[in-house]
Design a protein that fits this description.
The protein folds into 2 domains: about 30 residues, no CATH class; about 120 residues, no CATH class. The protein is built from 7 helices and no strands.
Length: about 180
């Protein structure tokens, strides 16, 4: 690609990002960003699939809608953000600025899942109970429900974070072994 239109100050940045020279980059995490994305997607998918299995075991009912629902065991938000953070740490180093940013983001998401979103879910339950009681004589009003299952218990968050950590660690080991054996 021709990046000459960017000017001399941006050419070095463009060469680094897009590797226009075709040479192997020497930065610690060079050309491994795809791993972080893959771990994040895989972590979220596995966590959501586990919710389906958990519900199947508990109720005996296969509910594929769980793949797109929030709440439940394990927390997919915690799983994918912790998987992302650990993946960045394994690639860039656990003392890198990139890992610090990813970890802070993961902690914010986990706090939100177990704190704010869980509280909103509990408030929604109270609101639904109040509406059902106050408007019991008006079926179309009393049947309207606010979504209650939004957040996670602290255990669901911790299990999600642990699962994301394990997925990132295993994925990194498998990826490194693959590249060592293939000579890349």
């Amino acid at each position: 690609m021709d990046f000459s239109f960017l000017g001399s100050h941006c050419l070095l940045f463009a060469d680094t990002i897009f590797d226009t020279t075709g040479a192997q980059l020497s930065a610690p995490g060079a050309q491994r960003g795809w791993q972080v994305i893959a771990v994040t997607v895989i972590s979220s998918t596995i966590a959501q699939a586990l919710k389906i299995i958990t519900k199947l075991i508990k109720t005996g009912h296969l509910d594929l809608r769980m793949m797109a629902k929030t709440g439940g065991m394990p927390s997919s938000h915690s799983c994918c953000t912790m998987g992302m953070a650990v993946s960045v740490g394994l690639i860039e180093g656990f003392n890198s600025v990139s890992f610090a940013i990813a970890l802070c983001l993961a902690l914010i998401v986990m706090y939100d899942a177990a704190g704010v979103r869980r509280t909103v879910g509990l408030q929604a339950k109270v609101l639904n109970d109040m509406v059902a009681e106050l408007f019991s004589e008006h079926p179309h009003l009393s049947s309207a429900k606010v979504k209650e299952f939004l957040g996670h218990t602290p255990i669901e968050v911790l299990v999600g974070a642990a699962l994301g950590t394990v997925i990132a660690w295993v994925f990194n080991i498998l990826t490194v072994q693959h590249f060592l054996h293939s000579g890349s």
